[in-house]
Fold:
Amino acid sequence: MTSNHYYNAADLAKFGNIGEFQKELADKFFSYYNEVFKDGALSAREKSLIALAVAHAVQCPYCIDAYSTDAVEKGNSETMMMEAVHVAAAIRGGATLVHGVQMMNKVKEISM
Amino acid sequence: MIKSLHARHNDLATAANQIAQLNNLPEILPFEEKLKQADLFPLRAQAIDIFQMNVGYMCNQTCAHCHVDAGPDRTEIMTRETMQKCMDIIAANNIRKVDITGGAPEMNPHFTWFVEQCTKLNVRVMVRCNLTIIVANEKYKTLPSFFAKHKVEVISSLPFYNASRTDKQRGDGVFAGSIKALQMLNSVGYGKAETGLILNLVYNPSGAFLPSAQTTLERDFKLTLKRDFDIDFNNLFCITNMPISRFLDYLIQSNNYENYMSRLVNAFNPAAVAGLMCRNTLSVGWDGYLYDCDFNQMLGLKVENKIQHIDNFDAHELQNRNIVLNKHCYGCTAGAGSSCGGETIK
Structure:
């Protein structure tokens, strides 16, 4: 360990360095990554919002930093961005609660 | 309304202190070195197609990012005598486009006279209108019809299509005033396809980030402004904020300066260099001095030429001059490039 914390904001800029240990796979990943975010059936602006929501769902601080900036740069309003975060929160919350059905099923199975 | 750096006696009110600040990051390679690495040095002008005149620093707004440090307290203003000299140069050298900027250029008392003189010479006039000047005072409410009569191309800043982001950059109430002014311009035919009256909007990021791709942002602006306010316009120009004057002050105060400069340098795009505005534009200060661009004007970086003032103007001497460079130039070469006409890569 070179510091006493797990996340360092400066490490985000070093993302491209992952090729140092395995270049071929890194090159393939970044090529794919760059292709994903181009304008397609979804615009680059919409994709940036999806990335921002996913960043919150997977709770990646690097991704939140990167896609907060990217989403603003691509012309998303603050309201759009917060609604995207709410989508992530709703899905995470829903994912927890829908398992409540499994809990209910089990309770009913073992109850008189 | 915030006060200008000038009124606050801020250190960054002087060009020398801004240049010192730009050069205090040794890890940022001098711009000319970056051009040398890309085999693009020296950077030379190609022509004087656009005669850009800054007719004064007075403005009814004090935007947080203003590279001019303009505001109501600024008294520097171009005289009619200087305007006449400019007019003579434009006529003698057959310059076809004049780009009038400020401050709010309409606050110069000789503004309408000058536009009328340009019309007589059949010179295309572009005015960088901040929009709110149209609704600031009764005497300016005729500007839309005046612009239309003279077929002036209106170029206006609107940093976003909502109030919160616009007002943070340009001042409380500016979005509402801008929308009203845009509707007034539309009502006389501006932005309508069949009239030939051109209304272009300028997008400046309202913070320490870079502009998005111009075409996609233009599409979003057009959709939203039409849907929410029934506003039409022609083109959106995306312009990167230069790290000078009030935007430089903002970057330092918000602790974004180093990151912003790094972003500009990392986004350096050699392909953006060919279309830089300094290559076909000559910038004239309110006092008649000559510069490669309005940014160099604010940094006091006069053209590198024996001709430095309109009093001894010589187009032949000036048209292929070497451009004066400093680290702020990274702002014009980031990503798809940035100029008074938007992206430099078309």
